[in-house]
Amino acid sequence: AILAQVLKPNCLCWFRFARTRGKLRGEEMGACLALPSSQVSSPDATFGPQQGAAYQARPAPTHSQGASAPPGLPMVNVQCPANMAPGAKLYIVTPEGFRLEAFIPPGISAGQSFGVQYDPAALAVASANMPGQPSAPPQASVLQNPQHGARTSGFGFLNQALGTAQQALTQANEVVAARTGRKAEEWVQEAKTQAYAKTVNLRTQISSQMESALASADNSKVSALLDSAMAAKLLDGKNAPASIRRAADQVASRQLQEAIASEDPRRLKGALIAANRLNATHLPEFAAAAQTYQKVKKLPPGWDVSKMVLHRQGDKMVAKTDIEDPAVLAKFQRLLDITHRKVYTRDRMGDAVPERLQLLKVHVVTNDDLWANYMARREWVRRDLEADPAGFERYNVETTDTLEDSVADGGEAAESIAETLAAEFGEPLRKDINETFLFHGTTKQAADSITTSDFRLNLAGTNAGTLYGRGVYFAENASKSDEYTRPDTHNLRYMLLCRTLLGRAYYLDQKDADPRACEEACLRGKFHSVLGDRKKARGTFREFIVFDEEQVYPNYILAYKRVDPQLDPARTLTVQVPLGAAPGMILQVTAPNGQTLQVVVPAGCAVGQTFSMQY
Q: β-strand 493-501 against 472-475: which pairing, if any?
């Protein structure tokens, strides 16, 4: 709190601190105070749309909201250009030649002026710690998108921030001394000693009361004391008091036995989770309850329900287990290889089509809620097709069916791989209702969220587009789904292999589709999915879309990396990252033949650096 009081009023540079591995780390949160022109006295700034930024400005309150200029620092007067609104980013150059980014403050319109105050000394330090920027990056210009403003880390200010932090700590010591008459170190040590004494006293009290409650068989008292023990973390670890340990085992055993007798999945799930919280998973009743839950919920026999309880996320019984068998991993790699087609589409945003996708890890997902919803939907689709088979057509899919060109090398066919994976997971695929495996490219965070909580149709199309409506998009070719992945910090990419119910598919092979008609056919018509045959229409890929997330079970998470091909010099364009751009940002570039292209700035590519793309 003292640190915030010291830093915030200065409005020069705010820092966020985090203790990481015992060291303080500072990250620039903002710089420059934007003020109304009434407080501006220094010369005007010059605009530098192609200049690099020494640090990034943040919007600040206007004068009417209480902002005031810290004394002793210079300020530049900036006139808001035409066609720009509050929140838009400008590049400016100070009279000293320092390069800044500034955001137009609220209430400022075109033609009006506002002031930007800056610290020349701090900027000099920052400039010395940053790579030089080109005066005019060739070919590339950032697309207008205020939501993608780049942020530059200000580690050049770290020493200044640490000095300010030290001043704040000194002030804290002075406050402690004034209020207690003691040194801060002594006061903290005494507080720790008192806290430890209270913990020991609480442990003794609860243990004694628990012995009495157990002796009198007072179950309500035992439960209340257990709640207190868990709140005090007396059940954590192996050093729990003996009476509390006996009580936890007794309560967990009784709840598990009652749940087993009821065969109610909700009571079984609650008892299993409670036993885990009580550290009572060693009881034989826990294993018996897990088996009963598996039977009642009709989960595949190969699922480890105990592991799902131990690894649950919130109220979700879910486990994501690494596959370590080399023979099984080889099947996944084979599936990536035989479904890989080196076809470029504009969704690659300038990235070259990889030579292949090299598998690194596979996680098998066991999620009881998602599986139950999926199986219920599968049975509904089966009955629907049985009652009205008109318009149903069985479609061969590259991830599930054997195609001639995919087995030319004599390797295992996709049909064999799919059958093995489905059987080992516990439930064969129903080809008679077009149940198949399909790929879905995504990010690491999204893959974790989807396998825990399912797809979110309200976000459908945010990454892949909505050519065939606002549904969830899948592909039979790994190279197609790879287009929508984004690398993590280790340059790994993530793709889901999902069991998908296509049922009666709404087939389209024309170049242009009506997305609303696709939605209408599936949401209000008799179709269960859309099959957009872009392979036939444009020579690219077939796409599969569902509008009910319960028609998908995210079965596996595949972690992989791209193996890049040799670049063709005749079709290679070198792009320099312009000022204001950041990894993941879309740039508009012009090829030597005059063609206008869009490209995504790769991960790890900073302003001024170059990268290559093929077109």
A: unpaired
